[in-house]
Amino acid sequence: MNSVPLVHELHYAIRRLRNSPGFSAVAIATIALAIGANTAMFSFVNSILLSPLPYPDSDRIVRVLETLPTGGLNGISTLNYLDLAKQNTVFEYVAAEVGWRATLTGEGEPVPIRGARLSARYFDIFGTKAALGRTFLPGEDQPGNDHVVLLSHVLWESRFGSDPALVGRDILLNGEAYTVVGVLPKGPFDRTAAVIWAPLAFQPANMTRDFRWLGASAKLKPGVTLERARAEMDVIGQRLAAAFPSSNQGRGVAVDRLSDVLIGPGLHTAVAVLFAATLSVLLIGCANLANLVIARSMSRQGEMAVRAALGASRWRLVRQLLIENIVLAVCGGIVGIGVGYAVLMWIQSLIPPSALPPAVEIRVDASVLLFSLIATVATGLLFGVAPAAQIRKLSLVSALQEGGHATTTGRPGHGLRRTLVVAEIALAFVLLVGSGLLMRSFFKLLAIDPGFDTENVLTAELPISQKQHPDSVELNAYLAAISAAVKAVPGVRQTAITSALPLQGWGYGVPYAVADRDRKDDENRRPAFFKVVAPTYFEVLGIKLLAGRTLRDSDRSGGPRVAVINETFARREFPDESPIGRRILVREIVPGKPEYGQEVAWEIVGVIAGEKINGLGDAISAGMYVSNQQSPSYDIHLVVRAGVPPQSLQKAIRSAIDRVNRNQALSDVRTLEQIVSQSMLANRVTNTLLSAFAAMALLLAAVGIYGIVSYTAVQRTHEMGVRAALGASSGSLRALIFRGGMRLAAIGLLFGLIAMLPATDVLSSMLYDVGTYDPLTIAVVAALLCGVAALACFLPARRITKADPIEALRRL
Predict the structure, then answer these.
(1) Which of 104, 262, 567, 731 makes a 20 to 30 Å CA pair with 619?
(2) Angle 6-18/314-350 helices, nearest 10 degrees?
(3) Beta strands 583-589 and 596-608, pairing class
(4) Which helix (H) or strand (E) holds 735?
(5) Alpha-carbon distances, residue 375 vs 241, 278, 372, 698 (angstroms)
């Protein structure tokens, strides 16, 4: 009997499971749900945290930026970039990059296109070759040779119908002809913000050290470590600071691996937390299944005893149970892969492509399937070990005497089942507390006053070509015509323009000094932010004026330069005095050029309440607002306050702009409410997923409590009959069963509280205005778990006390 082939035991296991359809269905569903959730989340872990970036030698690709004297990172000035590119000995290639807005014209409506200008060797860093044509040639990033472009594959397909003859032809961008020299292959460059690229040619006016407008990427030479590259950049940074103190004092050069830049600490923590949550759900599912299998194996002790008496070894019986469990796990795993794919599709529907790094593509690949296979087999073994161990301890004599019927609460396996339920409750408690903390943080963010009124406000980007409007006076006249045309649309109340929308940054960062103070030298100036707006900006957004006045139409070019500062700026520089009338010294931002002009003294005429700039949870940084008449800008967004739902006015606004300029593109049209909602997207997605996993854990824990209490109640049927026959009331019998289950819940909560302390510390960077040991959240979760446990205990307690005592005594 011990030499029965494995295939026969497999057939026997399948037959046994078919004969228990209820048990098999519950087990397979539990496994499928747990494996599916883990498969979906491991797809994210694998793609984001474990897989290398999809570029050759991606571990050698780095990002290069300057460091600020006050800490943090900044762009690189042109001359600093050229020096570090020339002086370094650690990079195989170095390339600069800068954003570029282009409007495609010539066919139908103007199409705004987001692009970038790059050094010629940029694509060599990423090992990317063109699918059609070629990439840039050395020398094409020199003035006069830069009117060539590369297209992303997705733009080539969507806009040009995958026409292979496009390579070599000219297209019109910002009214100028550019020759298409190549199309990139499908892949990560289809997911970047830019979809078209032109060479970056430095003009004489770009040759400055104090205007930091470039990003840079580089590829380490083979064998060069990141530490060596950083050490050399420190030396170059110190050399530049000594040679050019007015622009480089206190600044250095930062070198970071690209993978670390793309996968920032926030995304890393969120993915790790969610994966830990799904693993907890898997462990809770395994504990539940182990409880089910232990109960089932206890009911089969008579069968096992008979088989042992007929010659089956203990190992043979254990192996049979393990085979049954692995068959269950495999069936659940197969279903779980399908569930995982569905869960993955659901998660991806919650996350827009822009929320993930462009080099990351979430997919179910061989690594994910291997993980699912390992998780499936491990699950089968994990929930099968406990009942198998009970079989090894089986007493043949007692099992045959009892005929397979359990009659006492002290049966083998009962203590283990209690332990498993306690573990389920502890894990569920930790997950629920984590979810509760994130939920409280989310609602606190929603309750924040953003500093502006979001109702019925439409925004859009206005890409404007400097070559079409080279004169700043002409530019402002053109913007005034656009604003007047849009304001004339029925339903529009007021319009404004701005260099940056709320929650989307400031637009410019500038070093400044307060007039009549000692902070004169550039290297000693503090940074502030600078936003160019129309005078109507504050009215359109409903921003509160705290002191003085806002900007006016009379604040025009040639008149006294005036500025409005926010309350953060006022508190920082003028804590004990009125800032009205004081002057801020800022070097002039030359419109459309990466350079500073002469120093300008801006007189402070007003103080406003701060608008949120970089997200609802971000502290308001110090900044100043100036009129576009006095500091023109080509980076322009249109803001429209409407008296009706603004989406209904989009076509009318488009028509009004066409009457001014048919070639004026209008892009990224969104309501202000959408901008606020999108700023909360990461919080919302993480909160939704963790809440879903916590709900699964709560459900599984409730099932576990119900199962152990029901099992205990059945085991104590005879005892309950005796107690009832001796005069015990139904209430006292219910309380007896009820107390046993609630004792398990209390122990589980205690262990959960201990486990929660280190676990919630991981969430600290994801929380806003909520402590990791928030007593309200802990109390609510504990009460919820106790309520669920009480319900799970009440049902079997009520059922057992309704049993006929005489019938219970007959079972003796």
Answers:
(1) 262
(2) 60
(3) antiparallel
(4) helix 730-761
(5) 55, 12, 5, 22
